Amino acid sequence: MSASQIPPATAVPGDDVPTLLVKIFGKDRPGITAGLFDTLAAYSVDVVDIEQVVTRGRITLCALVTAPSPADSASGTSEGDLRATVHSWAESLNLQAEIISGRGDNRPRGTGRSHVTVLGHPLTAESAAAIAAAITSTGGNIDRIFRLAKYPVTAVEFAVSGAATEALRSVLAPEAAQLGVDVAVVAAGLQRRAQRLVVMDVDSTLIQDEVIELFAAHAGCEAEVAEVTAAAMRGELDFEQSLHARVELLGGLDASVVEAVRKEVRLTPGARTLVRTLKRLGYQVGVVSGGFTQVTDALKEELGLDFASANTLEIVDGKLTGRVTGDIVDRAGKARLLRDFAQQAGVPLAQTVAIGDGANDLDMLNAAGLGVAFNAKPVVREAAHTAVNVPFLDTVLYLLGITRDEVEAADTHVG
Fold it and tell me: Are 51 and 57 in contact (CB under 8 A)?
């Protein structure tokens, strides 16, 4: 078709144009949507909007269409004829039909649009009611609700308009904490779909362990090291000083302990799924760690990560010296590395996601476009953009609008 043959675009109906909202309810089966529009086609109406939802085998189908012209009544294609025909068609399929007259298109959404993702384990009716009420209290309107996952957690997404993202976040965060659910609020728009770099902490985030404690167990000083680690993660101690103090206790260990520790490392549930899915979507994925390259390099190879940076244990004559070499990856270092990775990946910082659990992750979480506190200490949960408090790392995918069905479908089609 040449440019001259392309018909002009149909104008969006004005507020004075008669329209009909056709609603169909009943047991779902193949062909209902096609059947409705085949029925409407006889009346030369234009489709303004369509929405369809199927829940437990029950369909709700809504079509907003322009009303037939009164001038068509002589030919049997008037609004009354349309109503009678739609009702007759619906009854033939044991469906219910409702047709509501009105004018113009749907009411415009309010300014300010956000996605509110709610994770529950389980998600109770009380929690859903409280979240909905909190959204309303900000002046927000819930335009749509969609389930993202039914296991290992229930995840639902609210499309909200009419309220600023920050206002929603400030109201929903304390409400979620009180209810024991996780709520993430992100601005709607193309940027959400364009976050193409995810950078994670390693210890107690990508993996279930604190690597230095695994080394300490071989040195017989696990309890002492764990106490210092906990204080550092709570932000009570300077990270660099605590790192040197803990590593010093490892001095004299045989270098063979490195391979032993690598075998002891346990990935967090959902870690492989998270990385695998992100890579299939074209994301680049990296890790930054206050732990050690002797472990992160192996994780990078095993998971196919794009970036990895950590501290390096010094080994001389087959023994750990009790020192680290090179620049220390601390709180400021993690934020710096996030920026470096983003630059190398060609991704604006606003389109990055950072995930971590400790106080030394805070600068990185705040620098990223979306900072996710994963089973984090209270100081981190309060400062991050959002928090996830279930033990499944792949739930982060739901914050990006990716559904469990999409994840499983991608796994099924891998040859």
Answer: no
Side chain identity at 245, as an amino acid letter?
A: A
DSSP 8-state code for residue 105: S
For 334-388, the pLDDT digits (tens) are: 999 999 999 999 999 999 999 999 999 999 999 999 999 999 988 898 888 889 9
CB 349 within 8 A of CB 339: yes
Number of Cβ atoms within 10 Å of the Cβ of 66: 17
Written as six digits, the tokens of 327 are 């620049």
Does pTM surpass 0.70?
yes
Give the integer Cα–Cα distance in Å for 7 and 115.
Answer: 36
Quick one: DSSP state of residue 402?
Answer: -
Cβ contacts of residue 323 below 8 Å, gap of 6+?
244, 247, 248, 251, 313, 314
* Owner of token pair 């993690």: 334
The answer to whether 239 and 329 are in contact (CB under 8 A) is: no
Lookup: tokens for 153 = 């957690």
Active site residues: 201, 203
Residue-wise pLDDT tens digits, 253-288: 999 999 999 999 999 999 999 999 999 999 999 999
**What is the three-state SS of 315-375?**
EECCEEEEEEECCCCCHHHHHHHHHHHHHHHCCCHHHEEEEECCHHHHHHHHHCCEEEEEC
Contacts of 76 (CB under 8 A, 6+ apart): none
Distances (CA, A) of 245 to 7, 226, 238, 240: 75, 12, 11, 9
Q: Tell me the DSSP string of 221-258.
A: -HHHHHHHHHHHHTTSS-HHHHHHHHHHTTTT-BTTHH
Could you tell me if 159 and 113 are in contact, meaning their C-beta atoms sit under 8 angstroms apart?
Answer: yes
Say how far residue 306 (Cα) sits from the centre of its chain. 21
Task: Say how far apart CA 286 and CA 226 lie, in whole Å.
Answer: 26
The 10 Å Cβ neighbour count of residue 105 is 15
